[in-house]
Queue: 2 jobs
Job 1
Amino acid sequence: MLNYKLHFAKKISSLLAGIEAQDIMAWMEYPANSDQGDLSLPCFRLSKTLSKSPQAIAEELKAALEVEHIDHLEAVSGYLNIYLNKSMFVETLIRHISHSGERYGSQNLGQGKTVVIDYSSPNIAKPFHVGHLRSTVIGNAIYQIHTFLGYRCVGINHLGDWGTQFGKLIVAYQLWGSKEAVNERAIDELLELYVKFHDEAEEDPTLEDQARSWFTKMEHGDQEALALWQWFVEISLAEFQKIYKLLGVQFDAYQGESFYNDKMEPVIQELKEKQLVEEDEGALLVRLDEFGMAPALMLKKDGSSLYHTRDLAAAVYRAEKYDFDKLIYVTDYAQNLHFQQLFKVVELMGYTWFSKLEHVAFGRVSIEGGSLSTRKGNVIRLENVLEQAVQKISDVIDARNPGLVNKAKVAEKVGIGAVIFNDLSANRIKDIDFSWEDALNFDGETGPYVQYTYARTCSVLKKAQLHERDEIHDIEIDGTCLQNTEAIAVVKMLYLFTERVEQAMVKLEPSIVSRYLIDLAQAFNRFYHACYILVDDKQVREARLALVKCVQTTLQNGMKLIGLQAPEEI
Ligand code: ARG
């Protein structure tokens, strides 16, 4: 499909000496008001370089630009307004979407490049909370978007499966736990043991020493300690995997923090050789004062490693193993400092790939005003949130469409979709207050609204085939049949898909795709209400059906990018 901005920018650049097409492209706009053209170039920035008034430039361009693809041009108040040849635009776009199908919107931007994405990464023996959900959903979308644009992606789950907390858990388990209780209650039991440890340790500080010594045993490969740790990991993982299955998310590798146990020593050596670390009361740290940051702690005084140590070893390992173009970490903004420190240490070590490291930070989620943290006794389990969403959607379906076959499956797709979409509904850095009413509203800017619109396209197409026995001739249609305002608005939205997906990749901002889906769904619904589709006039009917088909394809492609399922009936 022709990229109109690029096409016109190149033509204009060839008419104006010394002005790059890339710049012109960046200045071009899609006017919100169609009276100002389909595309428009403000000529103000050209004025200085060309020593002419913006209006004079616009007029010159109007006279010189060739008319291919263009209906007419206008030079108004320093703007060059371009009016496309609409029927040609409609016909080429519909042909292009029909040919491309599930590839519509994709590009080959990432050929030969690898992107490593570190996301989800919950902590073993602790429940999966909404922050991990948001990391999972955003990380998965970033993964899908890059894949769609031709990158090779490696999705890594950097499980929190190592650290002093496991020493505590072992002590607690041996004192108060039982095999049966852990097997039966899984993470709930582990969390309770962990909480009990903290309560008891306030009274009896020797518990802390015992915990430390168990963790040291783990770090030295003690069989008994490792067997218990392994068991805790398996139990937790089994629960996490239930959630991943519900969300439809997969990873290429589970490489938790423990994966780096034998990879930290060489990195510490390297830090020493490069004279980047200093000892401070027995601990080892990298000072970052001159960069306005607190020091990054690399070893505690008992010699044990930390979150930082494992992340540094992980970064070095990934650089060697994957030779990445980008390494992306998806966590909430509470870890901003951690990643700033990490990236700085990598830079100080002299690795040029430090510039390829990106922290994709996101805001906090609270439910109906309340916090969702794992504070003592006050844990809202993510699984419960998902189950409730499915249940509530199931109730809505009972009321709207009681005869629906596969109701349970559909309710699952829509309920989960609502939660996923809610996480992507605003710029990622914004905090989200999750409200059941907003997230599940079929008429709001929600996952269910997008899914419902998709189902509507399916039902129109099905009806057309049943009653009219029409094949949908989506390849060759008469573009003059789709010239009314609502149809053109849909066509323009369809056209923007490719560009929006690319923006979402560049800005690492999946909400650009979710926003797009809402815009497209709204444009389509306006068209649907304004124009009866199955009219008698064959040419008009075929053209409208082809447009519906293109909306279906584009919604489906976009939904897949953000991990939303596409049910054909709701
Ligand atoms: N397990 C950490 C947490 O729950 C997130 C890990 C993120 N990834 C990383 N490489 N540090 O906060």
Note: The chain has a mean pLDDT of 93.
Job 2
Amino acid sequence: MKKWFAVIGDPIAQSKSPEMHTSWYENDGIDAAFIPIQVKKEELEKAVDSLKLLGVSGFCVTIPHKQSIIQYLDEIDETARLMGAVNTVVRLQNGKLKGYNTDGDGFVRSLEEVIGEEHRDQSVLIIGAGGAARGIAFALKNQGYENITVSNRTVSKAHDLVDALGIGKAISNDEASETLNQYKILIQTTSAGMIYGDTDLPFSIDDMSTEAIAADIVYNPLMTPFLQHASNIGATIVTGIGMFVHQGAIAYEHWLGHYPNTKAMIEKLTENVK
Ligand code: ATR
């Protein structure tokens, strides 16, 4: 039987997942379809039951369902449970639906594709303490990054994050701004800078080191104000495209058993959003 996959969210029209996965099926000779489905918040439970009934092989979950979907799944992977968020659902042999979170690992693969593994002992600053920051912090910790600091507008949330994961320390955005040049790897996880022409950043980044490695999780625009500044001063940049592609590739591997070609996909999508 032909396999079919989906991505559910609201809005969904902007999602690049269908294009990405369909292109991988073509490259890998897999007979499958990938469908974007708009699911309103109040219809999530019905949608999950319907997907299950109709025999979906797996699906991606995006805003605003990443947290709320947990209650409707049969099993949750340990990492996703700790994150409190699911972005990938796999239909198991017995028909049950299991939730995973591939965002954090996707980020680390994207980062290390650019900078290698030799910076794991360097100081890392994660800006933001939301769901994305939590996944990234956990994945970095698991890969052996030892020196992680989390800054957030609401400092109590940064404290909650470092306490929950048992990592590094929490600071305010003001403190981060003042000590910015002490960090080698800077990871921007807030939604600031997502909108074209929006130059609002969580705080001043004038003191960024020229030796820094600056990564953003936002990929539209590709060059966020944060990355633009980093690029202007000659720092290394890691765009959000890599994280998007690798989180999808890890999902693909869960569903189909092998890792797709991420390099060509990153190049293609980078060209498209430029
Ligand atoms: P996600 O799951 O995508 O990480 P989230 O959980 O809503 O989204 O988290 C958003 C993050 O962006 C938070 O760290 C938030 O800071 P607060 O916890 O103080 O709300 C941060 N954020 C969003 N807009 C911001 C802004 N204009 N300035 C500073 N931080 C901002």
Note: The chain has a mean pLDDT of 94.
